[in-house]
Design goal:
With 337 residues, the chain is an alpha+beta fold. The protein contains ten helices and ten strands. The strands form four sheets. Strands 3-4-10 form a three-stranded antiparallel β-sheet. It starts with 10 loop residues before the first strand and ends with a helix.
Length: 337
């Protein structure tokens, strides 16, 4: 099996320097040894490198129907074994450990089906000896047969992202593809350059793809007409953003970008693209916020919202306000660590 980055000689660092695949250190559990500043720089750079594309799978998060053709919004993810393999490779199995704490919430009514059910809540504390510890939480509905396993994996991956491992996966907003009769993707999107080890080594980073529409073959170059089918696809993509963004933010972006209440009222394809891009940016912002809150705790959010005269995150209705909230929480996370 190829190394996680697909290169035999080492992980690429942020500035193009190679980080050896041989362990940076081989500490024993509880060892007091600390990394030097240079070792930390190389280790973090190696942790941040994207997984090899062969280790990436795709999950359908939203679905819609455009005529008789079902479509789904898919996002990439990696099995937690890819995370443990990277840690074992860099610091050896003796160089890190994790600890889980499992809780179950009280029963409450689930919104989507009004069923009374509890949630399984898992906290994972990940420690890399000589570097530090981070903890994060995961959750799953208790009526899921694999609730414990799913919540544990989610908590572990989120803890890993605090060290930079797998963090790049939070930058995806999702791409729309055709689904088969079992609601599986008929084809998978091509990864952005920054989501591959080679592209990362060459300096590609999230955000650069905004200059290109190649991630979605349905989008034609700006200024050109699109077919009714393509326009409907854009409308479907925008409508699918309502749930992940929440009603207030979704409505706010529609009003700010097009002065409408529903995307079906938009007749200009360029405006549809603009609104969709803003919503995708908002979804990425919410993912960044979620990752930062996993590091510092949700209580950090309260004074930040109050400073903006908001009582809850559900009142955020603009991309600019969301950006301010995200940056403040990320700043708090940096200070706490």
């Amino acid at each position: 099996m190829a190394p996680p980055n697909g290169h035999a000689n080492g992980f690429p660092g942020r500035t193009g320097d190679a980080v050896p695949l041989t362990p940076a250190v081989a500490p024993t559990a509880g060892a007091a040894r600390q990394f030097t500043a240079e070792e930390i720089r190389h280790l973090i750079a190696a942790l941040e490198v994207p997984f090899d594309p062969s280790q990436i799978d795709w999950r359908v998060t939203n679905t819609s129907k455009n005529g008789s053709h079902p479509r789904g919004q898919v996002v990439p993810y990696a099995d937690q074994r890819a995370y443990t393999d990277r840690l074992n490779l860099l610091v050896t199995p003796a160089g890190w450990t994790r600890k889980y704490v499992i809780h179950t919430s009280a029963n409450f009514e689930r919104t989507k089906d009004q069923k009374i059910v509890a949630k399984v809540l898992v906290t994972c504390e990940l420690t890399i000896f000589g570097l530090g510890s981070h903890s994060a939480t995961g959750e799953e509905w208790a009526d899921n047969d694999n609730a414990g396993t799913s919540a544990e994996a989610q908590a572990f991956k989120r803890a890993c992202s605090c060290f930079g491992l797998g963090r790049y996966l939070y930058c995806f907003s999702g791409a729309w593809v055709d689904l088969d009769e079992r609601k599986r993707p008929k084809n998978i999107p091509q990864l952005f350059s920054w989501a591959t080890p080679q592209g990362w080594r060459e300096g590609s980073r999230p955000g650069q793809e905004a200059k290109s529409t190649s991630s979605n073959p349905k989008l034609t170059p700006q200024g050109q007409d699109v077919s009714a089918e393509d326009a409907n696809a854009l409308v479907s993509q925008i409508e699918a953003m309502a749930e992940p963004l929440g009603r207030r933010l979704y409505r706010g972006l529609l009003k700010a970008g097009a002065r409408v209440w529903t995307p079906t009222e938009i007749r200009d394809a360029d405006v549809l693209r603009k609104v969709l891009a803003q919503m995708q940016a908002a979804e990425r912002g919410l993912r960044r916020l979620d990752a930062a809150l996993n590091s510092v705790g949700s209580e950090t959010l309260v004074p930040i919202l109050h400073s903006l005269r908001l009582s809850s995150l559900a009142q955020v209705d603009s991309l600019e306000t969301l950006k301010r909230v995200v940056l403040e929480v990320e700043r708090a996370a940096e200070i706490s660590h």
